[in-house]
Amino acid sequence: MAQATNTIDPAEVAKFEAMAAEWWDPTGKFKPLHLMNPVRLDYITQQIAAQFGRDLKAPQPFKGLRLLDIGCGGGLLSEPMARLGAEVVGADAAPRNIPVAQLHAEQSGLEIDYRNCAAEDIAATDERFDVVLAMEIIEHVADTQGFTDTCAELLKPGGLMVMSTLNRNPKSFMAAIVGAEWVMRWLPKGTHEWSKFITPDELYALIRNAGLDAVDRKGMVFNPLTFGWKLCERDLSVNYAVAAVKR
Amino acid sequence: MKHDSDVIVAGGGLNGPALALALAQAGLSVTVVDATPARQRAADEFDGRAYALAVASQKLLAAIGVWPALATDAQPMMDVKAADGRPGEGAAPFFLHFDARELDQPPVGYMLEDRFLYRAFLEAMQGEPRITLIHDTSVTAQEEAPGGIVVTLSDGRKLAAQLLVGADGRRSGVAERAGISREGWDYGQTALVAAIAHEKPHEGVAYQYFMTSGPLAILPLKGNRSSIVWSETRERAAAIAALDDADFLEVLRPRFGDFLGEISLAGPRFSYPLNLTLARAYAAPRVALIGDAAHGVHPIAGQGLNLGLRDVGALAQVLVEAMRRGEDIGALDILERYQSWRRFDSTSLALGMDAVNKLFSNDNPVLRAGRDLGMGLVNAIPGLRQNFMRQAAGLSGDVPRLLQGRAL
Fold this sequence. Notes:
The structure holds 2 protein chains of 2 kinds.
Chain A: H1 10-23, H2 31-52, E1 66-70, H3 78-83, E2 87-91, H4 97-107, E3 113-115, H5 119-123, E4 129-135, H6 144-153, E5 155-166, H7 170-183, H8 200-209, E6 212-223, E7 228-232, E8 239-246
Parallel strand pairs in A: 1-2, 1-4, 2-3, 4-5
Antiparallel strand pairs in A: 5-8, 6-7, 6-8
Helix pairs in contact in A: 1-4
Chain B: E1 7-10, H1 15-25, E2 30-33, H2 38-41, E3 50-54, H3 55-63, E4 75-77, E5 79-86, E6 90-91, E7 96-99, E8 109-113, H4 114-126, E9 131-134, E10 139-145, E11 148-153, E12 158-161, E13 163-166, H5 173-177, E14 182-198, E15 205-211, E16 214-221, E17 225-233, H6 234-242, H7 245-256, E18 263-265, E19 270-279, E20 283-284, E21 287-289, E22 295-296, H8 303-325, H9 332-360, H10 365-380, H11 382-392
Parallel strand pairs in B: 1-2, 1-13, 2-9, 5-15, 13-21
Antiparallel strand pairs in B: 3-8, 4-8, 5-6, 5-7, 10-11, 11-12, 14-17, 14-18, 14-19, 15-16, 16-17, 19-22, 20-21
Helix pairs in contact in B: 1-4, 1-8, 8-9
């Protein structure tokens, strides 16, 4: 919340300002996320609109929806969701991301409830959500089934989970490890462990076991000529997203 | 940061209001800051200025709802004839001929007087609750701040928004204050603009004569009137502009020809020095440029307004798509989508028109023969001619939705 920044030491604020600027610099360290963000947002907004019958052309179409952004980082997804009217909780286990995200939201005139905690901490309370986002997270967790179960637990009945990750095959090794980390240097080496990538079939199994019904899946495909991403019905070979509903 | 409106548009000419309407209709709040007093803007008298609207521009005006108020005052252009000519010699043997019947949709474009176009914009803006119109005021300072931009007006007020759009013309203060430098060329030419009344009907045909000193365009207005855009070297233009009306017509007659019968003046005369000015960037953090602020082009064939409306179509689409994703519409990566969409198109057109003008404003006999042959070839190959026409009508390439007549 906005007040939270006031309790922080001024020297720390300067550091967080620099970090916020870094998170939100489209040409900086987080450039790959900025490039990918429009297509992630397209997928998320379309799925939310379909599940809750919202018109994306209307002002603040997500008004009345409670949304949890797991692994919110600097707020690259939390802010757009808040702008679209959702009541947003952003959770991140990394303590330094929280004041950075808070500061930027305040600068943007947005109210977002950022919390330094793990998804499991919120699941332990009785707080539940209409939408849970877990974008590019599951390939970094140790217990994928446990994590998916937590996401499901955080949903109200009829709630929507949107998850994205990387497929595990030779092509994704070339694109995400060799391409993004070694050649383009977009990501620090070691950001991803290819062996932790998840195939769509494996993810569908995790989702089913967690008591969710998968309702959609699409590929997110990078075009190296236009440097842009687009959603694709069939090509789930590298990046892809799924949407699932709690029974 | 608390915003007074989502977008501030500096400049109340034509592109600014068009953008404001497109954005407001999609749900964004817009403040238009117009340096001109309201009364002067709504003048009813014909002041001699008119625009040749491309089909795509007309579609944009229809998509933002102002076309119904304009349709009866617009003169459809059914045909465009271009020729290489020298005064007293008539047109060259090969006549570049555009005919609306070759496009799958008639007409090729519309001629519209400035007074009708601006009035339609003004009325539409006054009827749009999301638009705040401030007259007789200009933007004097702008400062980017985290989460927005703060603009200072000439009356001392400060307004905050997510984005400031510079639609403030070829000497754009918005661009200058954003540190965007400009590149420019002077043609050493001046365009003489006037409305001409003539005896015979023009049948909706526009003519463009490329002459040694510069082009003469005769564009059909409603009734037995046409608008002329006559370019001459700066010295000659100054001399012609200094003539009284009767002498002016004496000099014009041999160039205009007698195919429309006796001619007379139907309004005041204007002269505009011709130069080209291109902004080095169309976007900066929380700033975007449209129209002449981005690219002031040579006004051959009325491409200035048409180019500006293409900026409007592209920027409105980029901003509205960003808004519907929840993105920050003033962020540089969003504005760069607009820049990369538009810059190539307008720069190539600006340089293309520059090249066309230089080629035709030349009396070298070899070039002249080459021009005749080249135009003959364009005429002889229907596919090529149609492509040329579609380009001129703004119908090819990656066309913004509004310019296809579709809603955002």
